[in-house]
Specification:
It contains eleven helices and 14 strands. By secondary structure, the chain is α/β, with parallel strands linked by helices. The protein is globular.
Amino acid sequence: MPISFSDGSVCKNGGASTESRSLIDNYNRKITYLRLSVTDRCNLRCRYCCPEEGVVLVPHEEILSFEELHRLVRIFASLGVSKVRITGGEPFARRDLVNFLLKLKSSVEGLRTLSITTNGVQTFHHLEALKAAGVDGINLSLDTLDKQRFLNITRRDRLDDVLRTFHAALALAIPLKVNSVVLEDTEDSDLINLASLGKDNPVTVRFIERMPFSGSGTVAHHERDRLVARLRRIFPAMKEVEQSLPTTARIFSLPGYQGKIGVIEGNSRHFCSSCNKVRITATGMLKTCLYDNGVLDLRALLRSDCDDEGIADAIIRSVQKSFVDGHAAEAVSLRKSEPSMAVIGG
């Protein structure tokens, strides 16, 4: 007897074996990448993500347990997902995270790449453990190198801690990328200073288009597609690097730079045709697109009598109903207000 839930999801126990099955959506895009949020908590209060005070946090019992998260990673890996990125909120706001990462790396068959996105405030305390656990890379969120501007953006005076994480990760040879949101008041000098991190270091500094989830509502159409043109004006010698694998970032080389710079066109959404990722929020909502409202309540399935094959079947059915692109997903969502990235999971 199928198990039905209030959101319309259905679990049919005893479904087809997950062995040799792949996640391919209705536009023939193969899903191999999972972004997994482990918490909605954060130790910063970035003005493009959440208010300074009055943040409504999800009750702990509504957050997926590490056991539930591990089970989901195993199921997704059985369906061909080979890359998992841990996100938040701020992942290190959750206790015992490193042990969870170690368990994923040591026990999930088919998981080839495990990485983490962090704001770096507390991360330097855990870098040696991350290295020992075999974490494959860190994406460090950093929007400015100016101390006062950092305080203005994040409402916390923690730039020194973030830079400590940056330099310590490099010293340990942990692959590192820097993610920087370009805001309405980001100056050319901010972009130049951030790009300089890649001049003497083997890192890619990726500038991210401001999106509706930045806390400022819908981004005007005239702001779209301008970031690459702006970078070309600032760095006229930059040349685009051809990439063989699906990616959300356009990458550019600069003469004399060890590293590179990149652009993530999350608002322009030029990369949708090759998108290979899905997201799971900290409360267990599956999102096949950053802009959808969530398509499957995995928490309800996990906390029912649904077996792994039944959950896998429900995931496959949801992925096979994906939107053609983020614009289509946004049009259907019809939200009165946009959730923050802390809720979505990055």
